[in-house]
């Protein structure tokens, strides 16, 4: 690890101005950033610690929306997200207790790891990402692997999740990291269904629109039987070929629908 | 008999300190004025070192010294501990393994420079400032390309990538070929024994110290065998006289083989400490562990099993390529040969066995012994091909094994692979397995799984292994460059408590608890009054350390012998005290007495007399009560076992879930059944890791793709079923005084074939035409096999 300065702001406004410093970077739970820094693969000059900001921590439900503060840990969402059980279950199945007690939703979504769970939850729910500057629809937020619509220094202060009538997240673990080898989040709002897939695609988290159409017409596992994503766009690595990932998307989508 | 003697399931006394954070591992030592070492390691798998410019680095803050390969050209190399002779009579090729790479780097992670600085951060900063001009060359990674010798040579000077081409037993080759040619049935299987990264919890760590006042060196290091490290450093690598070098291996957080060997980093911190007159510490990062610890396994094998139509075995023949990586690690040549080929007859009365092993250099990390070392590879090949054969013949896998088992009245049994098995009872183990694993209930459980949409399979395995490799005379003839005895000193202190100095090293095996049980049992004293001293060459007799499940069978026997000597001497002292002849003295439960009288004296009083020898027959008897024994076994010990596992395969995803794992082992006399159960369970976890999860993968350029725990899958608790472990079906080892065989590796030997047999069985019962899947049997591989 290289040397850096640590800023502990007392408000989001403070944090936002601290983020203007050269080489400043937001620090959430540090579960991704700190290991990278220890390996000297990242060298921020200033870390702005967000996890103590009361304004950014907490889970609340009102008017069909579950609001999760940007610095809320996975553990807290798992415990207090009962208004949106599928999301609470997703949070409760990220990493291990040590990771869940530190890692935050803002960090996870800002990082947009192609195998992470929250991006599927946010995209699948049609969430709104709220920053210190604006609101961004999940559909516009996740732009590419590890890329988001966030601007330099922009801070995720909260994420608003519309609570669906039914939802389920199916995660198939990559055997080593236990991130998602493939994860599928299915949410039904009346007749409208959203299906978001993580872990699988070379382009990062995506919506499987063909399945969404089929499920919107007929919300049953059999409706997606025989549908397949194009394996050509899928990741192929040590843990699974593109064809295997494409196949798992179908299996997990059916299982998610069955579990709704 | 005191409580806690041989056979007592005493809780491990060392666990109190381990579980409360009071263990003292190498990195916990920071002598005053310690400086820190960081290594510059190759990013390429094969490269020519054109120049290394250290001037900028040397000028960085805190930098004390920088070493490169140049600094070690005058000193010796790290040798291989076993000389193998090829089939054509040529000795194996032994390229030099330097302290730091010189001229060429040969694998990713090969260290070519080291910086010593006041702080670790300064050392790391300076490593980044070293300007190394390394010209990347084509790497040779896969063994088939390497043995073709048509492209890259890992070591130009030896002119080949083949270290040796070994035949065992070469004289049996023609007969085996002939038998296979004529056999009514031949089953052939090609398989890969996957390469593993040992991943001890504690990474390697070494601290070098030098005392300019006395000229003494001290190396504190993560070692399974401190005396061996001292010998190698003294006799081969640095030439430091043995009497001037203390090697200390304090608490060690797991080794699994990877800490048997002497590594260049140890030599470096010693040389640096001498140069600087300051202690020098190096602690590996997890990344360095992945790149530079000796890896395990990595065999590619073709095995043929020839038999009669009724399943009677006629011959086994194997052809194996064994990866040794870029350099010969200390036991890398013994592992695929004498620890592998000699076991290829398994538990069976097969008359013909021939094993051919080519050891191959590649641009990858060195490969050496890893829990089981050669024996898991032998067992896996054999027990997989037997299952395939049974399937081809339409025989039950239990029946085909039973048909060929060596029977209990056939011992000692000379196996066709050249070993003499002293004892065993494989049918009894199989009988026990059938009951314990409830074979009869399998169909019902399978039907239940089928209702849940799962394919259930049952896999079995029978294994034999060889522990406590010995005797020295024999291994010397076979090429070993070391002896394989062990040593113990039993020191009875004046007040009657006892210190036992042992050559074995405990890094998870529970010696501190088990060895006192032997002494307590023999002396009739409380085991709590006995302590073990190990891991410090300045305190213990010259021993060979711990690996190959040898500690109890070999070092425990030395403890036994030394204790016998204590009894002889104490009896003489007691005889004097009781005014009688030693022959008339009985000794039991810690009391010396004369039969038929009420004259007796306790062990404690005898000890005191030995050290305060007033009214003592000083002319005929030395004072003191301390004895040393060196024990060189007459033979290997031969643990054996029968394992069964049931698995469920999810046919949609290919995911395998282990439902049950039953391990029946014959370890001979068990000193502490609780520790033995723990050893088996740990081995099972590692074997299941190999079977389902772990895989060390290099790409074609020699980059380690599974170079971190994000991609290298270690078994976690929820990957494992509840184990059923039973070591009650025991036959005594006939040639060591305790009667024990060795249990440390069994679980890792017996479980991989059991699991893969079960998965293939599940698929076959599910109607899939799959006769083999290479390990790790990951979901994607199972799915691919089902959908090929
Ligand atoms: C062992 C392990 C297992 C894991 N398993 C899973 C898993 O199964 N599924 C899964 O989804 N994830 C998993 N993770 C990742 C985990 O969820 C992390 O918590 C998450 O990726 C990053 O969150 P963090 O709060 O720790 O962010 P940090 O590491 O602090 O930061 C990550 C990045 O986000 C930026 N950032 C942080 N907070 C904000 C914010 N509020 N606004 C803008 N930018 C911000 C940082 O600058 C940095 O670039 C695992 C991690 C580990 C170590």
Automatic annotation (TrEMBL), chain A:
<dbReference type="InterPro" id="IPR016169">
    <property type="entry name" value="FAD-bd_PCMH_sub2"/>
</dbReference>
<keyword id="KW-0285">Flavoprotein</keyword>
<dbReference type="InterPro" id="IPR016166">
    <property type="entry name" value="FAD-bd_PCMH"/>
</dbReference>
<feature type="domain" description="FAD-binding PCMH-type">
    <location>
        <begin position="1"/>
        <end position="166"/>
    </location>
</feature>
<protein>
    <submittedName>
        <fullName>Carbon-monoxide dehydrogenase medium subunit</fullName>
    </submittedName>
</protein>
<dbReference type="InterPro" id="IPR051312">
    <property type="entry name" value="Diverse_Substr_Oxidored"/>
</dbReference>
<keyword id="KW-0560">Oxidoreductase</keyword>
<dbReference type="InterPro" id="IPR002346">
    <property type="entry name" value="Mopterin_DH_FAD-bd"/>
</dbReference>
<keyword id="KW-0274">FAD</keyword>
<dbReference type="InterPro" id="IPR036318">
    <property type="entry name" value="FAD-bd_PCMH-like_sf"/>
</dbReference>
<dbReference type="Pfam" id="PF00941">
    <property type="entry name" value="FAD_binding_5"/>
</dbReference>
<dbReference type="GO" id="GO:0016491">
    <property type="term" value="F:oxidoreductase activity"/>
</dbReference>
<dbReference type="InterPro" id="IPR005107">
    <property type="entry name" value="CO_DH_flav_C"/>
</dbReference>
<dbReference type="GO" id="GO:0071949">
    <property type="term" value="F:FAD binding"/>
</dbReference>
<dbReference type="InterPro" id="IPR016167">
    <property type="entry name" value="FAD-bd_PCMH_sub1"/>
</dbReference>
<dbReference type="InterPro" id="IPR036683">
    <property type="entry name" value="CO_DH_flav_C_dom_sf"/>
</dbReference>
TrEMBL record, chain B:
<dbReference type="Pfam" id="PF01315">
    <property type="entry name" value="Ald_Xan_dh_C"/>
</dbReference>
<dbReference type="InterPro" id="IPR016208">
    <property type="entry name" value="Ald_Oxase/xanthine_DH-like"/>
</dbReference>
<dbReference type="InterPro" id="IPR000674">
    <property type="entry name" value="Ald_Oxase/Xan_DH_a/b"/>
</dbReference>
<dbReference type="InterPro" id="IPR046867">
    <property type="entry name" value="AldOxase/xan_DH_MoCoBD2"/>
</dbReference>
<keyword id="KW-0500">Molybdenum</keyword>
<dbReference type="Pfam" id="PF02738">
    <property type="entry name" value="MoCoBD_1"/>
</dbReference>
<dbReference type="InterPro" id="IPR008274">
    <property type="entry name" value="AldOxase/xan_DH_MoCoBD1"/>
</dbReference>
<dbReference type="GO" id="GO:0005506">
    <property type="term" value="F:iron ion binding"/>
</dbReference>
<keyword id="KW-0560">Oxidoreductase</keyword>
<dbReference type="InterPro" id="IPR037165">
    <property type="entry name" value="AldOxase/xan_DH_Mopterin-bd_sf"/>
</dbReference>
<protein>
    <submittedName>
        <fullName>Carbon-monoxide dehydrogenase large subunit</fullName>
    </submittedName>
</protein>
<dbReference type="GO" id="GO:0016491">
    <property type="term" value="F:oxidoreductase activity"/>
</dbReference>
<feature type="domain" description="Aldehyde oxidase/xanthine dehydrogenase a/b hammerhead">
    <location>
        <begin position="20"/>
        <end position="138"/>
    </location>
</feature>
<dbReference type="Pfam" id="PF20256">
    <property type="entry name" value="MoCoBD_2"/>
</dbReference>
<dbReference type="InterPro" id="IPR036856">
    <property type="entry name" value="Ald_Oxase/Xan_DH_a/b_sf"/>
</dbReference>
């Amino acid at each position: 690890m290289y040397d850096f300065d640590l800023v502990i702001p007392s408000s989001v406004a403070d944090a936002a101005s601290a983020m203007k410093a050269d080489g400043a970077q937001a620090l959430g739970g540090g579960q991704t950033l700190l290991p990278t820094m220890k390996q000297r693969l990242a060298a921020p000059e200033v870390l702005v610690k967000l996890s103590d900001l009361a304004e950014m921590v907490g889970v609340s439900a009102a008017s069909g929306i579950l609001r999760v503060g940007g610095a809320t840990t996975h553990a807290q969402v798992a415990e207090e997200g009962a208004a949106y059980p599928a999301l609470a279950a997703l949070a409760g199945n990220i990493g291990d207790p040590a990771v869940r007690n530190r890692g935050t939703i803002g960090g996870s979504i800002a990082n947009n790891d192609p195998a992470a769970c929250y991006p599927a939850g946010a995209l699948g729910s049609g969430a709104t990402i709220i920053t210190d500057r604006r609101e961004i629809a999940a559909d516009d937020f996740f732009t590419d692997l590890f890329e988001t619509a966030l601007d330099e220094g922009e801070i995720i202060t909260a994420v608003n999740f519309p609570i669906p009538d039914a939802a389920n997240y199916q995660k198939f673990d990559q055997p080593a990291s236990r991130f998602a080898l493939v994860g599928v989040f299915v949410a039904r709002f009346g007749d409208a269904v959203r299906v978001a897939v993580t872990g699988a695609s070379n382009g990062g988290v995506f919506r499987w629109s063909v399945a969404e159409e089929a499920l919107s017409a007929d919300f049953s596992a059999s409706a997606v039987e025989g549908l397949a994503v194009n394996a050509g766009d899928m990741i192929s690595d040590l843990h699974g070929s593109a064809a295997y990932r494409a196949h798992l998307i179908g299996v997990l989508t059916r299982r998610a629908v069955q579990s709704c | 008999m005191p409580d806690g003697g041989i056979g007592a399931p005493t809780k491990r006394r060392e666990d109190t300190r381990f579980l409360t954070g009071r263990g003292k591992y190498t990195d916990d030592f920071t002598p005053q004025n310690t400086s820190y070492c960081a290594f510059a390691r190759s990013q390429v798998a094969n490269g020519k070192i054109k120049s290394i410019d250290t001037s900028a680095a040397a000028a960085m803050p805190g930098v004390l010294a920088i070493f490169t390969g140049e600094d070690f050209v005058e000193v010796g190399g790290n040798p291989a501990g076993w000389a193998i002779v090829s089939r054509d009579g040529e000795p194996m090729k032994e390229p030099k393994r330097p302290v730091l790479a010189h001229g060429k780097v040969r694998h990713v992670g090969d260290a070519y420079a080291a910086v010593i600085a006041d702080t670790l951060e300064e050392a790391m900063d300076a490593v980044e400032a070293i300007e190394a001009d390394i010209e990347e060359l084509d790497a040779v990674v896969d063994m088939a390309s390497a043995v073709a010798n048509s492209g890259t040579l890992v070591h130009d000077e030896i002119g080949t990538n083949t270290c040796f081409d070994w035949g065992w037993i070469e004289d049996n080759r023609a007969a085996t070929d002939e038998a296979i040619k004529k056999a009514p049935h031949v089953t052939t299987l090609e398989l890969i024994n996957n390469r593993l990264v040992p991943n001890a919890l504690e990474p390697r760590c070494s601290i070098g110290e030098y005392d300019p006042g006395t000229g003494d060196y001290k190396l504190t290091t993560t070692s399974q065998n401190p005396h061996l490290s001292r010998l190698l450093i003294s006799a081969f690598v640095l030439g430091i006289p043995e009497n001037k070098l203390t090697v200390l291996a304090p608490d060690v957080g797991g080794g699994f083989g990877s800490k048997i060997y002497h590594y260049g980093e140890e030599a470096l911190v010693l040389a640096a400490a001498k140069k600087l007159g300051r202690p020098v510490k190096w602690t590996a990062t997890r990344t360095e562990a992945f790149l530079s610890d000796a890896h395990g396994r990595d065999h590619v094998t073709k095995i043929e099993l020839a038999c009669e139509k009724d399943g009677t075995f006629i011959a086994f023949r194997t052809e194996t390529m064994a990866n040794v990586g870029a350099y010969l690690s200390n036991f890398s040549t013994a592992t695929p040969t004498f620890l592998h080929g000699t076991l290829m007859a398994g538990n069976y009365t097969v008359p013909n066995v021939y094993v051919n092993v080519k050891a191959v250099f590649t641009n990858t990390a060195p490969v050496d012994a890893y829990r089981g070392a050669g024996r898991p590879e032998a067992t896996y090949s054999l027990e997989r091909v037997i299952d395939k054969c049974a399937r081809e013949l339409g025989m039950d896998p239990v029946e085909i094994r039973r048909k060929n088992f060596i029977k209990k009245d056939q011992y000692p049994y000379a196996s066709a692979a050249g070993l003499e098995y002293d004892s065993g009872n494989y049918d009894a183990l199989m009988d026990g397995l059938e009951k314990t694993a409830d074979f009869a209930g399998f169909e019902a459980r399978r039907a239940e799984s089928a209702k849940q949409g799962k394919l259930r399979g049952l896999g079995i395995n029978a294994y034999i292994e060889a522990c406590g490799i010995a005797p020295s005379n024999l291994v010397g003839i076979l090429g070993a460059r070391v002896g394989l005895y062990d040593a113990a000193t039993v020191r009875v202190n004046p007040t009657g408590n006892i210190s036992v100095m042992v050559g074995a090293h405990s890094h998870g095996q529970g010696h501190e608890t088990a060895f006192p049980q032997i002494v307590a049992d023999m002396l009739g004293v409380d085991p709590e009054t006995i302590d073990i001293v190990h891991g410090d060459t300045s305190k213990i007799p010259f021993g060979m350390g711990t690996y190959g499940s040898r500690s109890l069978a070999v070092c425990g026997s030395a403890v036994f012998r030394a204790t016998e000597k204590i009894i002889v001497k104490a009896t003489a002292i007691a005889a004097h005290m009781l005014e009688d002849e030693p022959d008339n003295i009985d000794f039991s439960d810690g009391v010396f007495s004369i039969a038929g009288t009420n004259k007796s004296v306790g062990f404690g009083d005898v000890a005191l007399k030995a050290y305060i020898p007033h009214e003592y027959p000083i002319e005929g008897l030395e004072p003191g009560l301390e004895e040393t024994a060196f024990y060189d076994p007459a033979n290997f010990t031969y643990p054996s076992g029968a394992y069964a596992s049931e698995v469920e395969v999810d046919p949609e995803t290919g995911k395998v879930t282990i439902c049950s794992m039953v391990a029946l082992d014959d370890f001979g006399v068990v000193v502490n059944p609780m520790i033995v159960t723990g050893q088996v369970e740990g081995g099972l976890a590692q074997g299941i890791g190999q079977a389902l999860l772990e895989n060390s993968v290099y790409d074609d350029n020699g980059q380690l793709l599974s170079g971190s725990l994000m991609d290298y899958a270690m078994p976690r608790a929820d990957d494992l079923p509840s184990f059923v472990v039973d070591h009650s079906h025991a036959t005594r080892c006939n040639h060591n005084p305790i009667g024990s065989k060795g249990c440390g590796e069994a679980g890792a030997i017996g479980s991989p074939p059991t699991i893969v047999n079960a998965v293939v069985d599940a698929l076959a019962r599910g109607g899939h035409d799959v006769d083999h899947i290479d390990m790790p049997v990951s979901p994607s591989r199972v799915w691919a096999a089902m959908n090929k």
